[in-house]
Design goal:
alpha+beta, about 200 residues, 9 helices, 5 strands
Length: about 200
């Protein structure tokens, strides 16, 4: 498999999951500004949508969308330790959180908070909505170490997106349980390996 990624982008969640599951894969860095790969090839020729992650499988098929790829990668582990067995309440909880992160967090941050042309009123509205979602997560994490009870691909995705707060100067001091969860996820050896591989950890 081959993962096309950009450092710290939502592709980090898939990168983390691949390492946790322990399957072999190659990394290809993408410049999202110029839409080129690390070899200088046009990324738009590879992925017309122009964003990451993109996972290329052994059969040469190419697939996108973080939430979908996280489910696929988690299912590569026969034990399904990071997603739960089909039909289980554990799996339903993980899928619920994957969807929450995708719709309530990911699409809140992006594109609005990453583009300089976004109006201040829009920025404030987005930050207010994110604050509500962070408070909800904080309450859940006051009762559980991880979003769906035990560590899962939902935590990988959630960590990746919430971490954007640090890059954008959005304080998390009002959410101590959310901060503690971020630290727990960051301390995992395979998470550290992914962060280090992307140049995000020295």
């Amino acid at each position: 498999m081959k993962l096309y990624y950009a450092p710290g982008a939502c592709s980090l969640a898939v990168h983390m999951a691949l390492r946790e599951v322990g399957v072999p894969f190659d990394l290809v860095e993408v410049d999202l500004v110029h839409h080129t790969t690390e070899t200088g090839a046009s990324y738009l020729d590879i992925s017309p949508r122009g964003y990451v992650p993109l996972l290329e499988l052994a059969d040469q098929s190419r697939h996108t969308e973080a939430a979908a790829l996280l489910q696929y990668v988690a299912d590569l582990d026969p034990s399904r330790a990071f997603i739960g067995q089909p039909g289980s309440s554990e799996r339903l909880a993980v899928l619920e959180w994957l969807t929450f992160v995708s719709t309530e967090l990911h699409k809140g941050f992006s594109p609005w908070l990453w583009h300089k042309e976004t109006a201040d009123s829009t920025r404030q509205a987005v930050k207010a909505k994110l604050a509500v979602r962070f408070a909800e997560m904080d309450a859940v994490l006051s009762r559980s170490d991880f979003l769906a009870g035990r560590y899962s691909v939902a935590d990988a995705y959630g960590f990746t997106i919430v971490n954007w707060s640090n890059l954008l100067g959005i304080p998390l001091t009002a959410y101590p349980h959310l901060q503690a969860w971020m630290a727990r996820v960051a301390a995992r050896p395979q998470v550290q390996a992914a962060l280090r591989a992307e140049g995000l950890l020295s």
